[in-house]
Amino acid sequence: MSLTINTNTSAISAAFNLSKNNDMLNKSLNRLSSGKRITQPSDDAGGLAISMKLTSSIARSRAASSNIQNAQSYATVQDGAMQAAAKIVDRMSELKSLSLDVMKSSQDVGNYNTEFKSLQEQLKALTVEKFNGVSLFNNTANSKFGDASTNEVVEVYTSDAGAAGSKVSIHKAMLLGAVTFNMLATDSDDDTKHTTAAGATNSTNLTLANSGTDAINIQDLGVSFFVTALENVATLRAVNGATSSRLNFSEDHLKLTQTNLSAANSRIMDVDVAEESTKLAKYNILSQASAAMLAQANMAPNTALMLLG
C-alpha cells in the first residue's frame, strides 16, 4: 500500500469498524436495559408483527376472562335467589300441611294464611331481582316453564375471538313459571288434576308469587302443587349449576391459552440475558480495540514527514 497524506485508508477503515462496534454495543445495552430482543422494527420486522398480534390476543383473552368471572357472579346471585325461593316454597308447603290439621281452628288456619300471603310477596320480589341492571329471571307474560321457545339467555363469549368464537349461554331462569300452575276450573280442591302447561281449556292460573290483593289463600292449592314447584325450582338450579360448571372450565381453558400465548410472545420479544451479556462483553472489547487502532492509524501519516526531512 502506498504511503499518502490526504487519504488515510487505515484510519477510515478503523473509524468504520469503531462505528459499527459502537452501534452493536449500544444495541446490546438497549436490549439488556429494556429486556426486549426487538427494540426497533428493523431488528425483526416479521417477529414484531407477530408479537403485536399475540399481545392484542392476550389482552382480549384477559378481558374475556374478566367477563367470564362477572358471568359466574351473575350465575351465583341467580342461584342464591332460587335457593331462597326454594326455602319459601318449602315453608309454604309446611304451612299448608299444618293448616290441614283437624285440631286447628279456623282462626289458627287464618294465622297460617297470613304468613302464607306474606311469603307470596317475598317470592314475587325474588322473581324481579336484577344483577347490575340485568334481570336474573325471565318473567315475560308469555314465559312458560319447560318451554324452550320462551327461554331468554345471556351470551358470554369465552374466547379472544368475541362473537366469532365459543360462547356460553346463561339462561334467565323462569322462576315465575316454575311456581305458576294452570289448574282446571272444575278442580276445586282436587290437587291431582293440575298441569304446568299453558293453554288448557277452562283453566285458571294460580301462582305462588303474588303481591297485595292478588295473593291466593292457603286453601286454594293442594300439597302436590308445592311438591311440583320445588321440583321445578330444583330443575332451574340444576341448569344453573351446569352452566356455572361450564363457565369454570371455559375460564380455565382461557387462562391456559393466555399463558401459552404469553410464552410464545416471550420467545419472540424477550432477550436472552445470558447470550446478550456475552455479546455486550464482545462488542465492548471490540469498541475499545477499534478506538485504539484508530489512534494508531491516525499516527501513520507522520511517517511521511521522515521522508520529507
Can you tell me about this structure?
Strand 1 and strand 2 form a beta hairpin. With 309 residues, the chain is mainly alpha-helical. The protein contains seven helices and seven strands. Helix content is 61%, strand content 8%. Mean pLDDT is 88; it is low at 185-202. The protein has helices at residues 9-34, 45-99, 106-126, 175-178, 223-269, 273-299, 302-308, and strands at 130-131, 134-135, 153-157, 167-171, 180-184, 194-195, 203-207. Helix 1 packs antiparallel against helix 6, helix 2 packs antiparallel against helix 3 (106-126) and helix 2 (45-99) runs antiparallel to helix 5 (223-269). The two termini are 21 Å apart. A three-stranded antiparallel beta sheet has the order 6-5-7. A two-stranded antiparallel ribbon has the order 1-2. The chain has a two-stranded antiparallel sheet with strand order 3-4. The relative contact order is 0.17. The radius of gyration is 39 Å and the shape is rod-shaped.
